[in-house]
Amino acid sequence: MPLREGSIDFRVTAPTISSHGDPEAQGTRIERGLVTFLLVTMILLPAASTVSRRLLGRELPGSAVLAQHITLWVGFLGAMLATASGRHLALSTLDVIPVGWPRTAAWFLGQAVSAAVTALLAWASLELVKVEWTGFGQVAFGIKVAWSQLVMPVGFAIMALRFAWRAGAPCESLRCWGLRVAAALIAAGAFLLGSAVPGPALTWILSILVLLAFLLGAPVFVAMAGLAMVLFFRDAGDPIAVVAVPTATFNLVSSATLPAIPLLTAAGYVLAEGGAARRLVRAYKGIFGWMPGGVAVMATFVCALFTTFTGASGVTILALGGLLLPALLEDGYPEDFSVGLVTAAGSLGLLFPPSLPVILYGVVAQAPIDHLFIGGLVPGLLMIVLVAAYGVLVGVRSRAPRQAFHPREALAALWDAKWDLGLPTLVVVAVGSGFATVVEAAALAAAYALVVELLVFRSIGPVRDLPRVLVHASTLVGSVVILLGTALGLTSWFVDAEIPTRLVEWMTAHVHSPALFLLMLNAVLLVLGSVLEIYSAIVVLAPLVAPLGVAYGIEPIHLGVVFLANLELGFLFPPMGLNLFLSASRFNKPLPYLYRKAFPFLLIMSAGVLAITYLPAITTGVVELLARD
């Protein structure tokens, strides 16, 4: 579903936002049941391993490796559900194409190319499984590596069939089957590439088709995988070379921190479904309501904390907008400021644990995730304080009423939200104290969220609601994991072609100052962060930026925090900043209005990003202080 008529936007994968349908309604019962079972198993394995190590002095054998392979299965099952419901991360331009046959043709091309690319990925994955099938590699408990790999060809094949089916979605009933059959034939034709002779003409044709399909709504992972396979096919002159893409995807399981992605995603979705937003609003209003501009401060902190749970500012704006905007207006804040504040604050909090973008950056850039979280504490607080301070200034100018401080109500509200505030505290303490690894802390956080919502608040029914919540979480996990895997395939071609090396050589030859490099990096990330969805930006740009940081002697944790802070700012950068589109939809305001009202916050947060960039001590100093061995 478009966010606003005539706009170009990235679809957001979240429980409250659906692009084309509900994954719970469109996926099969087997998929939904299996992904729920696997997510619960993932929560239990690392958590049990942590307890076993602390009480018995040894971990559960094979639990860590098994959790990594289960992540692969959860990712592919989630990707299959995301395909069924149209919730893959994708650029949608259909709304600017005239209704009728032009829009139908554009839709068909995007879905048909997606079907062809995923069909070819299914073939390449099957070739990978054949190689491994005769080997003796095991995951754990006698499970062969090849058995784990089977989810890849099966998953890609089902995605190909679903893309072909969706190709006929916008047409009349009689024409639907014709378009679906045509898309299926195009997908089947992808296998004929094995007999094709690579050459410049074929390479250009395939590349243009993939890029055009991406512009017309094909998912980002399809564009990355398609381009990667075309490039490998061209360079090797042999279709078997495309196996490099699913190989890179499977190599995700070698990342020890990968399971943290589904675990923390599930934890955030469970808390969000259980009413954490309402409890947090009440708690922070009780704490800050007496201050000048107290309600604005409350809105800033609530948005930041809620974003740490969900890892996606779109969820924050859509879930909290209906609570925070009336509260600000009721206290006499100008509507212009109030809309701008909720729009800007929706991207705060991405640097705090257990934020998913931080984990994803750590996986892609191979940076220690615990150090990234520690290094992001002060920069994240700086961004919040700057926005909150502006809220105080406007509150004083507008003479917003200050409610009397009632200690009993404040304590009661804080006590009611103690369980919600406990989740990020649990992650920070568990990792910072060395009690648990990042994955184990993520599992403890997910188990904690389940206990809180199922047993303490009883806001989620274990049979009625929990499977639905976990299925929604799995669609985000699936869209991120499949994107990360295919991006690694494209990155492997970059490495083979020595693109990062050449980029480093060119930059160091033309830009000699690290300070100038950081300024250029800020500008590039700001623009690309407004165009690319944040997960796409991380998996595409981080492998290119990390070597440049090393070449200029920039500390990796500082570079990571600068990278993420710029993407956080990109949510507000016109004309394509995602928060601007979401607020326009949520508050029924025209985009030019949002551009103007968010601009003061863009300037304030830009000052914060520059301070983070050129004062590395606020990042590295905290890491040195708190992360000493």
Automatic annotation (TrEMBL):
Chief location category: membrane
UniProt-recorded Gene Ontology molecular function terms: transmembrane transporter activity
InterPro entries cross-referenced by the UniProt entry: DctM, DctQ, TRAP_DctM
Pfam families, alphabetized: DctM, DctQ
Membrane association type: Multi-pass membrane protein
Ranges where the Tripartite ATP-independent periplasmic transporters DctQ component domain occurs: 42-164
GO cellular component: plasma membrane
Keyword hit for Transmembrane: yes
Domain TRAP C4-dicarboxylate transport system permease DctM subunit residue range list: 209-618
Transmembrane segments: 34-52, 64-84, 105-126, 146-165, 177-198, 204-233, 240-261, 295-325, 337-360, 372-396, 441-457, 469-495, 515-545, 557-578, 598-627
Location(s) in or outside the cell: Cell inner membrane
Keywords: Cell inner membrane, Cell membrane, Membrane, Transmembrane, Transmembrane helix, Transport
Protein name: TRAP dicarboxylate transporter, DctM subunit
Native organism: Anaeromyxobacter dehalogenans (strain ATCC BAA-258 / DSM 21875 / 2CP-1)
